[in-house]
Design goal:
CATH superfamily of the largest domain in chain B: Thiamin diphosphate (ThDP)-binding fold, Pyr/PP domains
Strand content of chain B: 15-25%
Shape of chain A: globular
Oligomer: heterodimer
Number of helices of chain A: 11
CATH topology of the largest domain in chain B: Rossmann fold
Radius of gyration of chain A: 19 Å
Largest sheet of chain B: 7 strands, mixed
Largest interface: A-B, 45 and 43 residues
Distance between the termini of chain A: 22 Å
Shape of chain B: globular
CATH topology of chain A: Rossmann fold
CATH architecture of chain A: 3-Layer(aba) Sandwich
Helix content of chain B: 40-55%
CATH class of the largest domain in chain B: Alpha Beta
Bound molecules: thiamine diphosphate, iron/sulfur cluster, magnesium ion
Distance between the termini of chain B: 45 Å
CATH architecture of the largest domain in chain B: 3-Layer(aba) Sandwich
Chain lengths: ~325, ~425
């Protein structure tokens, strides 16, 4: 895991560190030499976590590959808001084909680069959680299984946002979406078995799997930079709050991503060849309510008659993550 | 020229290899398997320098092809039937993106009921997807068409489907002329893409287009495909110069000069039809046959010219549009608009049913006598279908159609005995 040697407990975040660090340790976003791969002027909502995540990730990938990067993009918010013809925000070679095939398109690009001997060119594929965990799942698994030389980045905003906030298999239990309304005896999304893609990616024993959030730029950049130069299949799952779909304030995007990690609902770790090699510890444990309350998609669980049982079940999931991934610092409780 | 006694699929595989594909995606489905197996063998043995991807579905096969073609690699894949349907979304996408992918379709029926044998329902379902569609009459032509297909695809930056009859061609062993590498290299220059994903010239491909430009984009797809109407005969003539034989082009008339009745068909059945025409002409019948090589673009003018003077046209097709009738016939009617010529549709060979010379003979005589109905199913067992229709009228829970039909026909084994 990437941690700067200096800690900034006075602010409780890692975001102010750059000027105290060596130039070589500064984040890509902090340098004027960054590529602005996803340039300004696109049409994402204010405070869109996906836009932020993509900007961080792709700039880091550009920096790590000496700008020898090609991206394949699935249909979804990121694609729609970045390329309304005749405009494009992408300052890099970029292709959008379909909703469910970005991993395969990227495999094709990688194959073309290999046969042409252009080994310096690196390939990323990117898509939302719906594209990744549902419709593009077969192509993604195939790409992993063949160990194609592609870094796949999933921007997880926990729903089909581009089509108007419907449930995906990455939507958490109890959440309100347009297809899981807060009605009836069990309002919101069902408590299913879940479909946790980072673990599924690990089961393919690919060289590198990691999770990250837009709240920790340095960690995210580090993981992307590390992944981009590994040959073979890589997977990074980035937690990206969606103000529109979640009913949260635009200025809360980073805070929500931070709280998702701190409450244990979104574990941040990395794994090599199917084995976990690093975990971002929780620094200040918080109850899941703190994370849920600022989001209107959970509003039906609170109010006059809070759904205590449901909230307890969600807390139990967070607690299970905390023990499964060892998220607590030794001695912190 | 040295002829080799080989299987059609193998001939195609060897020919594809000579076209120097850089990326090949493979997913098995009968009757296409031997083609991709052949190519896989050549890549494994180091005889062919290409990336060979064993993908997890046809949808992935076409998607990989989209990626590699957009990145400037000459790309090939093959499929059939259910496989073609499984990749449909990507098939349309490849055309929309203007990517010069070449794909063989080893024509096969579509289920349910599942059926592995030959007809044209699969590629016909994709007639409006924007790909150029060429139909091979023989295995030699299938091989030749692939060489021409790469040239055409790369010239126009459009994908090309080469359709060859499953089993009838793919699995037939015959003497085939496999050209030399020098011949193919001289005919087919290296791929120089029109658009390419390259970090030194970054472009965005596949942007979202709204109502303000979508009609224009679609019109251009049409206009571009129509350019193949000029290009195909040119490429075919060049091919003849280099390889010494007629292959490709738009249409193939046979003894149509002065014929009152002209039969139209696509693919390998043309061979059988020509034999019937020979016999019938000898017996004094005024009948000829017109083969259509290029189904997309559809050569309206060439067909109109070729049919001039004919009184009636019999379109014999191995597919049909449920609920209306002939697919090829509908297109032929467009070519003949206002001419007053009568067009009759004969649906034949569905799911691999043999199209025999005697059945053809009988149906053509019927046509010439003016007795043929607008839509006829060749060798249809009316007793069986009437029985099933009757059953369904009387019994609501009448069970699955295919099984009901088979119950009345008896088992395959009992039929053979
Ligand atoms: C085959 C197909 N089915 C459905 C759609 C409609 N569709 C487009 S984007 C989208 C939602 C995308 O969700 P996700 O992948 O999570 O990305 P997000 O928009 O949330 O970033 C859907 C359902 C489509 N384009 N193609
Ligand atoms: S709907 Fe959500 S993911 Fe889509 S642009 Fe808006 S904030 Fe971003
Ligand atoms: Mg999403």
């Amino acid at each position: 895991m990437s941690y700067q040697p200096v800690k900034f407990y006075q602010t409780g975040t890692f975001t102010v560190g750059n000027r105290l660090l060596d130039e070589s340790d500064r984040s890509v976003q902090a340098t004027t030499a960054r590529n602005n791969s996803l340039n300004s002027g696109h049409r994402a909502c204010q405070g869109c976590g996906e836009a932020l995540g993509a900007r961080y990730a792709i700039d880091a990938a550009m920096a790590a590959s000496n700008r020898q990067l090609i991206a394949a993009n699935a249909t979804g918010c990121l694609e729609v808001f970045s390329t309304p013809y005749p405009e494009t925000s992408w300052q890099m070679p970029w292709i959008h084909s379909l909703f469910g095939n970005a991993p395969a398109v990227a495999s094709g690009v990688a194959a073309a680069m290999r046969i042409k001997g252009r080994t310096e060119v690196r390939v990323v594929a990117q898509g939302g959680d719906g594209s990744t965990t549902d419709i593009g799942f077969g192509c993604l698994s195939g790409m992993f299984e063949r160990n194609d030389d592609v870094l796949y980045i999933c921007y997880d905003n926990e729903g089909y946002m581009n089509t108007g906030v419907q449930r995906s298999s990455a939507t958490p239990p109890a959440v309100r979406t347009a297809t899981t309304m807060p009605l009836g005896p069990e309002p919101g999304n069902v408590f299913g078995q879940g479909k946790y893609l980072p673990a599924i990616a690990m089961a393919h024993r690919i060289p590198f799997v990691a999770t990250a959030t837009v709240a920790d730029l340095r960690d995210l950049e580090h993981k992307v930079k590390h992944a981009i130069n590994i040959r073979g299949a890589k997977y990074i799952h980035i937690f990206v709050p969606c103000p529109l779909g979640w009913g949260s304030a635009s200025h809360d995007t980073i805070n929500l991503a931070y709280m998702a990690k701190e409450c244990g609902l979104f574990p941040v770790f990395q794994a090599e060849y199917g084995k976990i090699t690093g975990v971002s510890k929780i620094r200040k444990p918080i109850p899941v309510e703190d994370y849920m309350k600022p989001q209107r998609r959970y509003a039906h669980l609170f109010g006059k008659n809070p759904a205590l049982e449901t909230i307890a079940k969600i807390q139990a999931r967070a607690d299970e993550n905390i023990s499964t991934y060892g998220l607590l610092e030794e001695g912190v409780n | 020229m040295t002829l080799k006694q080989i299987e059609g699929s193998h001939g195609v595989a060897e020919t594809i290899a000579l076209c120097r594909p850089e990326v090949i995606c493979a997913y098995p489905i009968s009757p296409q398997t031997h083609i991709v197996e052949g190519l896989g063998e050549m890549v494994k043995a180091g005889e062919l320098r290409a990336e060979y991807l064993n993908v997890e579905s046809e949808f992935a096969a076409m998607s990989v092809a989209i990626g590699s073609s957009a990145a400037g690699a000459r790309t090939y894949t093959a499929t059939a039937s259910q496989g073609l349907l499984f990749m449909v979304e990507a098939v349309y996408n490849a055309a929309g993106l203007g990517l010069p992918i070449v794909m063989t379709v080893a024509n096969r029926a579509i289920g349910a009921p599942i059926n592995i044998w030959n007809d044209h329902s699969d590629s016909m379902s994709q007639r409006d997807c924007g790909w150029i569609q060429l139909f091979a009459e023989t295995n030699q032509e299938a091989m030749d068409l692939h060489i021409q297909a790469f040239k055409l695809a790369e010239e126009l930056s459009l994908p090309v489907m080469v359709c060859m009859d499953g089993f009838i061609l793919t699995h037939a062993y015959e003497r085939l002329d496999v050209p030399t590498q020098e011949q193919v290299d001289a005919f087919l220059p290296p791929f120089e893409p029109r658009q390419i994903l390259d970090p030194s010239h970054p472009v965005s491909i596949g942007a979202m287009v709204g109502p303000e430009a979508f009609t224009e984009v679609r019109y251009l797809a049409h206009a571009k495909q129509l350019q193949a109407l000029d290009l195909l005969p040119e490429i075919s003539a060049d091919f003849k110069k280099s390889f010494g034989r007629d292959s490709g082009g738009l249409i193939r008339p046979y003894k149509t000069e002065g014929a009152e009745t002209i039969v139209i068909a696509l693919g390998s059945v043309l061979g059988t039809i020509k034999d019937v025409i020979d016999e019938m002409q000898e017996a004094g019948c005024s009948i000829g046959v017109l083969g259509i090589t290029s189904f997309r673009p559809f050569p309206l003018d060439a067909i109109r010219d070729a049919l001039k003077g004919a009184k009636r046209i019999v379109v014999l097709e191995k597919c049909f549009a449920v609920g209306v009738g002939g697919i090829v016939a509908t297109n032929v009617r467009m070519a003949l608009e206002g001419s007053g010529q009568q067009v009759r549709t004969v649906v034949a060979g569905l799911g691999g049913r043999a199209i025999t010379m005697s059945s053809l003979h009988a149906i053509f005589l019927e046509a010439m006598a003016g007795k043929l109905e607008a839509l006829t199913f060749l060798d249809l067992n009316s007793e069986v279908v009437d029985h099933v229709l009757e059953l369904e009228r009387n019994v609501r829970l009448s069970g699955p159609v295919a099984e009901s039909v088979l119950r009345n026909i008896g088992t395959v084994a009992s039929n053979i005995a």
